[in-house]
Structure formats: structure tokens, C-alpha cells
Please model this.
Amino acid sequence: MTRGSEDYWDHPWRWSAVARALVPSMFHIRVKPTSLWTEWADDGCARASTRFGWQEMLAELVGWFLGRDLGAPVPDAAILFPGRADAAWLSAYIPHPIHWEAHHAHFVTNLDAFGAMLALDAIIHNHDRHKMNILLTPGAEEPELDAWAIDTGAALVGFPADFAAADLAVPEKPNIARGLPVRLMEPGARRAARRAVELVESPALQHQVAGACRLVGEQESNILFSALSKRMKQATRLVERYIEVVGAIS
Amino acid sequence: MSAKFRLVQYVPDPFVGTKITIGALVEHDGQVELARAPWVPGPGCIGGRKAWSTMQLILDSLSTPARFDLPSGELSALAQLGEERLVPAGVGSAREWLEAKLLPQKPLREQDQKETPPYRPHRDTVGYRFFEQWSVADFVKRKYAPSSLPRTHPKAAASVSHYVPGKDELLLMEPVVGTRPKFEDDLQAISQEFLAFRELFRQMSGPHQTPVFIAYVLTGGYSAAMGEASRVLSRAADQVVNVDDPAQRTLFLQRIVAVGSSGGNQGSLPLPRN
Model:
């Protein structure tokens, strides 16, 4: 699906001007147009999560924009009612998904993007990549499958002070799906790491971090930007270490 | 005041419980009307012509609905009406919006409109995809059926799906896909095929390499597949490999590369893609 295509439904809700400025592609997500969120909130196809704190929302936001920039297969996303107590993170509707199982490893086609997911998790210190946080959808021809990475809400990046304190550590005992084709994902992970190093120099990064913090009311934008920049500069090192960690588990 | 709607769902077989959304009752400014799903499944998908006709009768009966709070099941036990939901504010025509945005749409592509299921890939296609994925396909050839071997029976020793010719060994490989509907038939066929080739090789004293018969199992999630394959192929195969198991897979792939390389095939260099 491409942005603005007929496949997308223009959602009926209002979005904040801040979100518009930050991530324009947030506006064309396919959302089931029902007022009852909970009906489709937990079915693995689309999620709407009302958060009690902003940290998870911040982690989702950073995971979303950085994932996009690194080439990870992350769905479109949006925030419903940003700034309000009932704000919710929306992840775009992915049609026909199943969750990860090891026996699917032979048939995933978007291995480079899938590998970029590892780089993303290493950089934002996301330990929560269990099998339900990886969706698979039918590819162009059976038995091919496309992988999607969802849910970075538990990443340490959502807690700027803790994220900074982690320095250059990666999740050493991640809750990660078993049977990932790590060897096949390595080239994509390394390419994404190199991309992360390039992105540090981009003024857009600071703008994105500041925008994300503003959306969720996080005051520690500078701490977050500083910690994220440091990790992205060292992305190659982080990703190599994380490949070792994940390879030993998978 | 926002418009409200209730989904209308048809349940062709109440014992199975499959629900098909066929429309919605819409209420706006005291007016009640039916939004019809632009696309509903054909007879073959819902249990036949009579089931399909009943679905149409239900839709026809609701075409001029008298009330929005019609009890579910009143029209027919097979017609269920859902809970009230609000149409989002700002929508002009609730009925048009429901028909365009919410209710089932006819798939755009012709191949998505067919009621007959598409053919699933052949066993050897799935197996070769495995070799491609793990970057050893350059060493693997398809369909071992040398013309030098006699054909005693058209179905005996016809061909082996995949093979790797080496200097000293010839790997003859058959994929086993655990989730295929005819899984047990597949195992029997592979067993017969391997045994037939063994007999042919014995009679013809060929090929010059040592043949190694390997069944490689893609469980597809059917965890008993490996056990059943090992049992059925115990006499016919030299090796049964569970390629879903990383340790077994690694050894298997290494063997393919080693044997293929010994036969003069250099494979392809793993050049980085930037």
C-alpha cells in the first residue's frame, strides 16, 4: 500500500497539528471506522493502546520514525487525541497477519528490512521482540512471506534518563522470538547500522526527537537526543553485539 | 446528532457459527435504512445455493426496515443484528459511508475474486525456495533423471526433486512438507522413489559418485512431521534432516556447499548489496 492510495481509508478523527508537522504519513492509515476501539484493539491486526504513562508512547514514536528511517518494516502509525489523558497509539491495520514461528524463517522475503529491525532494537534498546511483535503477511506468491515489526513500546528509549544511563549497552537478555534467520538478517542489520551513523548528522533527527517529546509532554528532549545520537554514532558496534546476542538465542 | 448503525450478519450454519457481514441498519434523524454490503460471498463459499438464497431473502426483508431496534434473530435465526455503534461525526451520508468504507468490498484484483482456492505450490517448489533462502541454490540442481538409467516402470525411479553432484558424493534430496494434505502419501512416494533408485544404481553400478539419499523436512508447524518421516523413510533414506532445527540445518547446508564445491561448482560470492 502506498500513502494516499485507495487502499487507505482517511480516518474520521482529528489529528494534532503537531503530529501533522512531525510525521505527515500518519494521516493515511487504515483504521476500522468504529467508535469501539477495544473490539479490534487486541486482535493482532491493528492496535489501539491507551497508555497510562507517556513513556510507552514516546518509545513507540521514536521506534516508529527511526524504524522508518532505518528501513525497518514498521507499519504506519498515528496518535489519537495527543495531549489528552485518553490519548492512544495507533498502529496501521496490517491485513491478513500471523505471528512469527520459527518454521516461517525459510520463506521471509524482505530480509534486509527484517534485519533493519534488529538494528532498530539495538539502538533504541528494545528487549521486547517476542513472536507476537513480529507479524507475517502473505507475499506475492505462496509460500513467500513479508515480515513486519510492531510494538516498540517497551523500549528503554521511552525513558530518557534510563536510556542515557544505559550508555552503549544493548539488551543482553531480550525476550525475542525463537528461530529468527539471524544469518540472513545480518546484512540488512549492518546496512541499517551504517544508515544510523549517517542519520546522526541530519538536523532532522533532533527535530524528530523534539517533536516526539513535545507530543507526549516529555521534558527531557535534550537528554534523549544526546543519548540517541551517541548510540547511533556507535550503531555499528551496537548492532554487531546485538547480532551476537540474538544469534546465541535464536 | 450522530447517525447510528448496527451490523447485519448472516450465519449460514449456526452450528459452525461463521458470520458473514451482509449489511447494516442505519438510523439518522429518525430515519432507518439498510446499507447493503457491496460484495457478499457466492453460493460456493457459504454452503450452496439455498444458503445463498436465504441470505438474499434476509437482505430483501431488511430493504425497508421498520425499526432500528429490531431484536437480533427476529427476522431469522440466521440473521444477527449487532450492537449500536456511532457513525463518526462529520460523515455526510451514513449509508454511503458505511457502504464505501466499512462493509465488505469486492476485491479489486480478479485473482482475489475467485471462489475456488488457488493451487498451492508443489513440494519441490517449496523445497527449492528453502535452498534459495539459505543461499545454496547455486549448488542445487532440479530433477535428477539421468537418461542413462533404464525405465523399468513409468512410476518407478522417475526422478528425484533436487540433487547436488560432487566429486565423490551425489546428494539426492527430496523435500518433505509436513503440512501438505497428502503428507503420508508423499512419504510413501519418496520412500518408493529412493528404494527404486537404489535398486537401479545397484543393477547399473552407477553413478560413479556415492549416492546419498536425503529427505529434508520442513515441518510447516506440524511438529510430528519429523518423527513420521524418520519412521517411514528409515530404510529408504540415508538421512532425514529437520531443516527447521538450526543445528541440523547448518550441517545440511554445509554439506551441500562442500559436496557442490567438490564437484567444481563455486556457487556465488556473497557480495554485499548496498
Observations:
- DSSP finds seven helices and ten strands in chain B.
- The interface with chain A takes residues 83, 85-86, 88-91, 97, 101-102, 118, 120-121, 126, 129-130, 133-135, 218-221, 243-244, 246, 272-274 of chain B (CB under 8 Å).
- Residues 130 and 137 of chain B are 8 Å apart (CA to CA).
- Confidence is low (pLDDT under 50) at residues 270-274 of chain B.
